[in-house]
Design brief:
CATH class: Alpha Beta
Structural class: alpha/beta
Radius of gyration: 18 Å
CATH topology: Rossmann fold
CATH architecture: 3-Layer(aba) Sandwich
Oligomer: single chain
Number of domains: 1
Strand order of the largest sheet: 1-3-4-6-5-8-9-10-11
Shape: globular
CATH superfamily: Alpha/Beta hydrolase fold, catalytic domain
Length: about 325
C-alpha cells in the first residue's frame, strides 16, 4: 500500500487511510530517516515524498512536458542529475527518485536493498504519478533498474536512455571478481566503514575535477557506517541478482524492441568505456543510437551533463 505524501499530491486510497496509518506507524519503528538536505544553491528543487508501506521515498519533480524518469546508480542519488534537470525542465517533466537507503529517502531495516526491490519502488511511484509516454534514463545501477521499470509496463515507455551501465549477468572476469568480492561480509563491512564508492570510485570515475562542496553532498547523505548499508548490499547484487539479470537480458530484446534507445557513453570509463560493452547493448537493441563522449568517464551527469541533456532534448522533446 502506498500514497503520495503531503508535498507530493493527494492520496489515491483515502478509504484505507486508517489501516495505512497503523501500518506506517508500525513500520516506522524500524526506519531511519535521512535528515540532511543539500545546499539550496546546489540543489534548488522542492523535495517531494512518496509513502510506501510506512517509509518515505524522496523524489524531485520539476518542469513540464513529456515525463523524464531519471534513475541514479550506487552511492549517488537524485542530486547527480541536478544540472540535467536544470537544463531539461523547460521541455520535460523531470522525475528523479532516491531509492530506499539512498539520498534523502528513508533507510528501512526490513528491506533487502536489491535492485528488484528498488525497481518495484520506482514502478509504484510511476503508477502513482501516472507517468505515460515517458523517457527513462538510467546510469550505473539505474540502467538495469530502468529496464526493469520499462518491462513492467512497456506501454508507458516512449524511450530509453542508457549511460555507462549493463543489463546482463556478471560473466566477464572483472565483473565476476568484483561480484565475488562484494558478496563477502568482510568487503561489505569495508564499504560501510570507509565509504570507498564516494571517496575513491567517484574520484576515479569522473574526468572533470569534482569540487569539494559537491563531494561533501555525497558524503553527508551517507554520514555513518550504518547509513551505507544500502550501498554495500546493492554492490553485492552484482553476483546475488544473476537470475534477475538473466531475465532482463532475455526479455528486453523481445518486449522493448520497438522502443527508441539512446546510448550516451563516457568513453573514459575504466569499467564500461569499451566498445565490447556498447556492442552487447547494440545486440540487444539493434536500432539503438550511440553518442560517445570522449570527455566523460563513468559519471556522465557530472562530467558532461550538457551533452547528455542535448541527446535527450534532440531525441525526445516534443
Amino acid at each position: 500500500m502506498a500514497r503520495l505524501g503531503a508535498h507530493g499530491g493527494q492520496s489515491r486510497d483515502n478509504s484505507r487511510q486508517s489501516a495505512h496509518t497503523a501500518l506506517s506507524d508500525q513500520v516506522r519503528r524500524s526506519v531511519t530517516q535521512a535528515n540532511y538536505r543539500p545546499p539550496v544553491d546546489l540543489f534548488p528543487f522542492e523535495s517531494k515524498w512518496y509513502d510506501l508501506n510506512g517509509y518515505r521515498i524522496h523524489y524531485v519533480h520539476e518542469g513540464r512536458g513529456r515525463p523524464l524518469l531519471l534513475l541514479h546508480g550506487n552511492a549517488t542519488f537524485s542530486f547527480v542529475y541536478r544540472e540535467m534537470i536544470s537544463q531539461l525542465r523547460d521541455n520535460f517533466r523531470c522525475v528523479a527518485p532516491d531509492y530506499p537507503g539512498f539520498g534523502l529517502s528513508d533507510h528501512p531495516q526490513n528491506y533487502g536493498y536489491t535492485p528488484a526491490e528498488h525497481a518495484e519502488c520506482v514502478i509504484e511511484l510511476v503508477r502513482a504519478l501516472d507517468l505515460r509516454d515517458m523517457v527513462v534514463m538510467g546510469q550505473d545501477w539505474g540502467g538495469p533498474i530502468g529496464v526493469a521499470v520499462a518491462l513492467s509496463d512497456p506501454d508507458r515507455i516512449g524511450g530509453l536512455v542508457l549511460a555507462n551501465t549493463w543489463c546482463w549477468p556478471s560473466d566477464s572476469l572483472p565483473m565476476r571478481l568484483f561480484g565475488l568480492a562484494m558478496s563477502t561480509r568482510a568487503v561489505r563491512w569495508l564499504v560501510m566503514q570507509r565509504n570507498p564508492f564516494v571517496e575513491d570510485t567517484m574520484r576515479m570515475g569522473a574526468v572533470r575535477p569534482m569540487p569539494e562542496r559537491i563531494r561533501d553532498v555525497y558524503r553527508q547523505v551517507l554520514p555513518t557506517p550504518a547509513s551505507r548499508r544500502a550501498v554495500a548490499m546493492l554492490a553485492s547484487q552484482v553476483r546475488g541478482a544473476e537470475d534477475w539479470f538473466r531475465m532482463l537480458e532475455r526479455e528486453s530484446p523481445v518486449r522493448l524492441r520497438d522502443i527508441p534507445v539512446r546510448l550516451v557513453w563516457g568513453m573514459r570509463d575504466p569499467a564500461f568505456g569499451h566498445e565490447t560493452i556498447l556492442s552487447r547493448w547494440h545486440a540487444m537493441f539493434p536500432r539503438s543510437e550511440v553518442v560517445r563522449l570522449t570527455d566523460a568517464s563513468h559519471y556522465v551527469q557530472e562530467d558532461n551533463p550538457g551533452a547528455a541533456a542535448e541527446v535527450i532534448r534532440r531525441s525526445f522533446a516534443g
